[in-house]
Amino acid sequence: MALGIGLARRGGYIHMPVLFAAVYAGWVVPQLWSLVVRRVAPEGALAALLFMSLLCLAAVILGWRMGTRRTVNPLAGLLPRVHEGKVGKAAVILTGFALIGFLGLGADPIEAQGSTMWTGHAAIFSLILSIKTASFALSLMYFLRRKTGLSTALLVINVVMFAPYIIFYFRRHVILEACLIAAYAFLVVRSYAVPRVAVIAGLMVTSMGMFAAEEIRGISGEGQVPRLSEIAEIDFLALNPINNPQASPEIENAANLVSAVQISDRYTLGGQFWNRFVFQYVPAQFVGADVKQGLMLTPWPAELTYSVTGYVPSAGSTQTGIATAFMEFWYFGCLLFYFNAYIMGRLWLRALAGNSWDKVWYAAGIVPSLHMVTHHSAVFYVSFSFFVAILTFVAYFLRGNLRANNPGGLRSAGLPAPKA
Question: What is the pTM of this model?
Fold first, then answer.
């Protein structure tokens, strides 16, 4: 229902409830169906997981509605602004940061460049490279407003930083990130909304391609571009969990984690947030692996599942944010999704009323928000805090003022104000 209502509104496809509903429809539901058919979920875990899934989606819808209410925005004075005249300089700085990470990873072997689990110096470069989300969004919006030599060069550099992870390594989150940021930029800058038919077709293609990623990567090999004829030979329907019970076992992982938590009655109460923060921001090469491990407060989800039930998740699969939210705070973990949607709602209002810099905050939070469903409930809060730190540093470095440069109201982007 949330998906249908959102798509009926102009530009609604970029709203959080619609994006979450799309992830549910294309990723969660097929795996839940497979789990029901195979009947491999521990007793009582499937019902608990289904109820938790519905609570999380409802929390997103409620959080977005509360966040997009036209009241005083509590984030207005917290996030510094940059004058529209300095957006070009901001784009240069962000692109420069991201380029350092890109070139640093480029010095590694091809197989390391395509990895998603870096160690050593590569982990630091990958963190720096993650700034490309904000730099691409800002550069694209800067280009759409002012087609100059500088804006064109910045956009080309950012496209180049995205290209290898899309063409050679077929990283699903990078493809999704690039498409959503582009759709968002054209919407809020040029007031161009992607036709609904194209959005629906894109959702279908994304759902099929999501479960065929490994096969496509297998075709490409190490740094090779797969041919269209080879991709056409893949049976995408057969790889969907509805037809292939062994595909994408994340929801099965989630059911076993929920069961382990219920049996052990061990709720981490924020411990997973701390673990994710330490894992992402404490470099083992500086403090030592033992010190870093000692900073961890609670077992990782997979460790708890194995210790209680003996279940071993498939290599490379996730535990889902739905299950880790349950591990953190029982059913109250759905509030993590509520606050995420609320924050994104406030950023959406800021994007509609502000200049290019004000719009980049929302762009930076789109994919981390969706990863709360597919990966971990702490992803948005841990990852987005890095964007906040970098963007704040850039804003104060440029001595941006704290007043909106373009207080044109919600209709300044040519879009209808969201309903309360």
Answer: 0.84
